[in-house]
Amino acid sequence: MRPYEVMVILDATLEEAAVQAVVNRTSEALASAGGSVARVDKWGKRRLAYPIDHRTEGYYLLLEVSLPSDAVAELDRSLRLTDQVVRHKIVRVPEHRSPRPQRARASELVAARTDNDA
Q1: Does residue 118 carry a pLDDT above 80?
Q2: Mean pLDDT over residues 87-104, rounded?
Q3: Structural contact between residues 57 and 71, judged by C-beta atoms closer than 8 angstroms
Q4: Is the pTM of the predicted complex or chain greater than 0.85?
Q5: Which of 8, 21, 11 has its CA nearest to residue 61?
Q6: Domain boundaries, the chain
Q7: CATH H superfamily, domain 2-117
Q8: What is the pLDDT of residues 27-56, one digit of tens each?
Q9: 37 has which bridge partners?
Q10: DSSP-derived secondary structure for 41-110
């Protein structure tokens, strides 16, 4: 399972209950695909950088999730089909930010070997 960040912009006219319903549906879809939601940040209503479908505001959500790489396409499709979602973006979190232990890079191994030889 790999860590991902999912940024979702919802319609700003939604009530809090509707926003929570979208979060719950997305969490359930991730769980059924074998993933999990680590954290949900509700940023609230913010002004959009440019109008999208004649909207100037959106409700921003940031989800930190872990899911198998083959489930990303299904999550993308699910968010695209949800009427309340104005825009979304799924980004894989780089290895240096993920909670997994990092593997040593080849350049670090060569540097460590030359330091030990001297």
Answers
A1: no
A2: 72
A3: no
A4: no
A5: 8
A6: 2-117
A7: Ribosomal protein S6/Translation elongation factor EF1B (3.30.70.60)
A8: 898 888 888 999 999 999 999 999 999 999
A9: 65
A10: EEEEEEEEEEEETTEEEEEEEEEEEEE-GGGHHHHHHHHHH-TTEEEEEEEEPPGGGSSSPPPPPHHHHH
